[in-house]
Amino acid sequence: MGRKPNYKDEEGLKAFGKRLRELRLEKGVTQESLAYSTDLALSQIGRIERGEIGASISFVFLFASTLGVEPKDFFDFKKESVQK
Prior knowledge:
Blueprint: H1 10-26, H2 31-38, H3 42-49, H4 57-67
Helix pairs in contact: 2-3
GO molecular function, one term: DNA binding
Pfam family, one: HTH_3
Protein name: XRE family transcriptional regulator
């Protein structure tokens, strides 16, 4: 067997993380408060927002519920607009 393909879309992860941060700030929610409300580690919230790790679909629904937005709002971005 050959090498396992890398399916990590770094540009997409950064765009999603940037969008999460935008929505969180629009709602006046700190990373600490979001971490507490979702029972996730503060460092995990930061890593998602920086695009270092992805968020599962379960986390998308959890973030949406916590922030009072629709899950689709997290995907309202264009990947090519993200600064590298």
